[in-house]
Amino acid sequence: MVRFEPLGQKMFTRRNWLLRCSILINILVILYICSHVMIGNGTGFNGSNTFFIQEHGVDTANSAQLIGDKIQPPPPPPPASNDLSLPPLSPNDSGSAAAAAPATAVDAAAAAPTQNQGGSVVAGNIGGVANVGEAAVYTNNSVNDGEPAVAEEKDPEIRLETLLNCYNRDFKPEVLQRGDFWVLKNYVRADHGPLKCSESITYTTHADYTFLDNLIPLLERWNAPVSIAMHTPGTDYQPTIDAIKYLRECLPESPLVRTFTTFHLYFSTKHIPKQVAKQSEVLKTPYNCTLPPPYFNVSSGHLYKSQKKLLYPVNVGRNIARDAALTHFILASDIELYPNPGLVRKFLEMIARNDAYLQRKAPRVFPLSIFEVEANATVPRDKTELQEYLRTGKAIPFHKRVCASCHGVPQSKEWMAANETDELSVFHIGKRTGYFRHWEPIYIGTHADPHYDERLSWEGKSDKMTQGYALCVLDYEFHILDNAFLVHKPGIKVLQKDNRRAMLAGKTNQLIRKIIYPELKIMYGVRQGCVV
User: Fold this and answer.
1) Which tens digits make up the pLDDT trace of 38-69?
2) Which of 133, 138, 182, 237 could form a disulfide with 273 if both were Cys (CB 3.0 to 4.6 A apart)?
3) pTM, two decimal places
4) What residues contact residue 314 under an 8 Å CB cut-off, 6+ apart?
5) Strands (E), 248-394
6) What span, in angstroms and rounded, lies between the C-alpha atoms of 439 and 435?
7) Which residues contact 528 (CB under 8 A, 6 or more apart)?
8) Contact criterion met (CB below 8 Å) for 290 and 162
9) Which pLDDT score, from 0 to 100, does residue 353 have?
10) What span, in angstroms and rounded, lies between the C-alpha atoms of 161 and 437?
11) How does pLDDT run across 5-44, given as a tens digit for each residue?
12) Mean pLDDT for the chain?
């Protein structure tokens, strides 16, 4: 028997089904509208503005981010390793290099690296390396042909900060212990205040107060931050403070000292001064500027160090000054070595216009050629003037008459013969091997480079040899700069007999051979051709 459903009940079932479908459709419509509203407001699914920007055809990785009224550069790519040293600057097959780059800061800024949508680095206007005779030069051929135009950062300082991926350091005064030494870090600070790690280069050096007559001629040519560690044992403390005050207060050049120079003090725990002023009090009492400078006509025999027959802890001072430097790049030098003017600006411009090579891994430093001039000569200000001095015999390579192999620079004759150019470039890439296995280069490096061994003294000599061995074993490249040089305070050195130093040098050689060298082989390893 067939049963029929009442008509009213059947219509009720259909209305119920249609109502459910209608509700479902309404929900889908509402979700669709909400999703468009969210996209239109730039939130996207992950809270970013990715979808909104991409609909307008702009690559977020290549575009600057607007925050307030300032344009912030895109975040830098992560470094390939923990090594903050810089890569080679276009070496050719023969090992020499020269950087021919945009002539202006604006042109150099156009070479900033950007990132494509996949996150890979794209060099703006820096192209490949073209061999021209014996030198390698950069071309301006774009390496991202076919890519859409991207936003480029025009501020060289911001570009350098992004490229170097360095971090800013504290500039506060501190009282520290370093082995057997007390250290007063940032005891008298430069007026420049905290610095960005990318905005300059710091000249780091060491001295006792009898060498402070070199500070003004150094600053006049360097015109950038100086970090100097002063050895002040016992009674040497007070004349050192007086000399610092004199330099900061009493000279026409005192603004240079106040602006750029930061002084750190250090002394042995066995030779602490009887009184040490707090950092906040040390400059409160002005110096009597009618008095002569405390370092005037003072010989090393007046020093507490000499009277107590102390050795000068040269490498302790070097490391203190270096570790306190605020900038990524450091020129660790001696206070009597004066650089050619304009070096800081030209070096940073060279780095900025060769940014595409900053991702390469090989460690490197940038040595400067060093020279001596006659006692009555003025210090040459550029390479052209230096070449004239060399031609007439008024200048010679550094320590030519004392230890020529210690400062023999690869391709030095070719360097001296090459004409000066407007920009700074890498002239030749050398190694500390072969004839140059005992080379003691002074170079622009970074905080990542090995420290100097603090067991070695100035009197015992060979104080930079162990660090040179570490650089060699780590396979550092020495990128010799073409138009950059150092000149020693006028006066050509000759070899003089010093029985005490000869005895101390013998003890130092034994220390290196029996203790330090075996340690270096464990810590850094060995490499064929590398010697202490």
Assistant:
1) 444 433 333 333 222 222 333 333 333 322 33
2) 237
3) 0.73
4) 206, 452, 456, 457, 458, 463
5) 261-268, 329-332, 337-339, 364-367, 369-373
6) 8
7) none
8) no
9) 86
10) 35
11) 554 555 556 666 667 767 777 777 676 665 544 444 433 3
12) 79
Residues in the chain: 532
If pLDDT is split at 50, 70 and 90, which confidence band does 389 have?
very high
Ordered by start, the domain boundaries in the chain are 167-327
Tokens representing residue 422 in the block: 């407007």
- Cβ atoms 239, 299 nearer than 8 A: no
Closest CA to 313 of 278, 275, 270, 277: 270
Whole-angstrom CA distances from 531 to 470, 479, 526 are 9, 20, 9
Distances (CA, A) of 37 to 24, 32, 50, 242, 302: 20, 9, 15, 71, 82
Spatial separation of the C-alpha atoms in residues 394 and 200, rounded to whole Å: 32
87 within 8 A of 364, measured Cβ to Cβ: yes
Can you list the alpha helix ranges (DSSP code H) found in 41-76?
Answer: 50-55
What the block records as the tokens of 286 is 């002005």
Sequence-ordered list of residues with C-beta below 8 angstroms from that of 508, at least 6 positions apart, any chain: 456, 457, 460, 461, 462
DSSP string, 408-457: PPTTHHHHHHSPP-SS--EEEEE-S-GGGTT----EEEETTSPPPPTT--
Range 233-251 average pLDDT: 98
**Which pLDDT band holds residue 354 (cuts at 50, 70, 90)?**
confident
Average of per-residue pLDDT across 375-395: 96
163 and 351 Cβ atoms separated by less than 8 Å: yes
DSSP code at position 234: G
